[in-house]
Amino acid sequence: MKGELAVPARRVLLAKTSLDGHWRGPLAVAHALRNAGFEVIFAGMASVEEIVRAAADEDVDLVGLNVGGRVEVAERILDALRAAGIDAPVIAGGTLAPHACRKLAERGVATFPPGSSLQAIVETARALTRGESA
Amino acid sequence: MSGERYTASGIPIRPVYGPADVPAPQRDAADSRPGQAPFLRGAYPEMYRSRPWRIFQLSGYGNPEDENERIRFLLEHGETGFIMEHDRMTADHLYDVDHPEVVARREDVGLTGAVLLHVRDYHIALDRIDQAAYYAHSGGGVVQHAPYANAAYWTIARRRGLDLRNLSGTGQSDYFLTYLGCFPKEQIPARAGLRLNRDLIEFCAAEVPRWVPVSIAAYNGADTGLNAWQELGALLANAIEYLDLVRQRGRLEMAAVAHAVGGVSFRVSMDLFEDIAKLRAARKMWHDLIRERYGVDDPQALRLRIHVVTAGTAMTYPQPLNNVVRGTLMAFAAVLGGVQSLGVSGYDEAISIPSEHAHQMSLRIQQILQNETNLTAVADPLGGSYFVEALTAEIERRAWEFVGEIEAQGGFIATLDSGWLHQRAIANQLEDSRKIEGGERKIVGVNCFEADVGALEVEGFRPVDNVYERSLERLEAVRRTRDARRARDAIRRLERACRDPEENVMPAMLEVLDAEVTLGEVGAVFRDVFGTWKVPVNV
pTM score, two decimals? Predict the structure, then answer.
């Protein structure tokens, strides 16, 4: 992070879209992002409305969704964020089948199914938040 | 790679082992025979010649009809027991399908298990399945759900005229999933769960003696990050929590209880010898624990029966057919370790619950091992191997040490409440991530050999679309047409039983099922009486 010290930390909202409470994946991602200098806010198992509210209240630069259920819920979250005028980029991880990855990719969401490297997630988060005013 | 080598749990291993590497007490234990104390070499004298391992696959999704169809599919294809997986959103949380938290994500309903919200749903799920013929997991893997799920399964059996005394199976009622690896949004405190498990143990001792009232599933601890000897130590510390409680109450024969709760499950992952050693050590340690701590001599009580599930986390997303190989290797190791029951995770595990074809492959892997390999001919074929005996002794030593650490923390439940056990798992998770990211731990298709000329895409399980709507219809029909007064009385009686710590909740729970009280109504009582557990992990 040398040379970036003057820039305030980018803020990431992580949330689980489903009521499946496996926390191992989000914890690994949160840890990797924090180590890379991001400020991570974990909303846990949050509803669509809760995610939209948290993204607005926390004024986040990036939203990371842990999808433990069907992709339709993630799509609903995406719709609600955009409808609320929140244009922060969205990335998604979790048990995403190939068709779910394609659906999300069509809407500009970078996807990280199981086995994705944490480094790749960090690099994507950096690229997506670079140059935005904090 | 030359240089130092370690097992997955960090035990240093040499390039070759000889007689001097096996400690003397381990040599003595290895001189025993399978089926004899200390059961190091197997639970039964002839092992698979007389008792083939049970083919026991996790299954369930969608509407009760879907679950029923999948269970019958598996039984028709050679499964020898059956498992009822419940929908995580409703079952783990004790929510009806119209609970606002469920409605908020209604698309997910039924994705990971069947939605079974009242006794009518269980009738559908168990239609044309002979409960007298199979060892069953009724669902209720989660502590707060177990009394309901057990009572539901037993209610169907009673209505069919079956004697509960002859039913065999388990509801599991285990801590490792929801208090360690997968936290629901809300669940009752771990200590309140201990009271429910006590009630299950005491009720089963009197009324359902062939049922395993609580089946410790350390698998979930392992897939959350506990290493082999931590998994084993935590399992024993959990057993101590149950057995100490039973002894302190002094109402039951210790031998009978030790036998009842001596059906447990472990994970077998890709460090094959370490996990074989773990299963062998587990049997010996169970024997030693029951004999020394509880003064029990009955061989039935000293013999640990083991179910293994192959590691879900070992199954990779890229190159999914490789997972058939991984499943085969892990199943092979489980059999060499002497399991009584086995489930092989699906090759599409990283994507979804198993598709029908992935399920069939899990069966075929086991059937090939049982029928083509002669693996079933000889008990404990690795017994006496210098390496395996040395590793078994070392795992035992470390696992006892871990039991001691947990006891020093105030016992198993205390380590869940404080987050101490979670911190052990987290340390291993982060270390594991670091090794995989850095290539120190290689996973084919993930961080090496990533090219895939086949580029075969597996889409996993195709979920059912109408589960939320159909579950809601059935739920509303029950509320409309049941005997409202009887349901209300049953709920009141359950609440009274819950509030009186000396009463057993199970008779009231059976009445709840028979009176068509719904899962969410029971959840409301539990939340009101017991309150909510505070999650000790910050992500």
Answer: 0.96
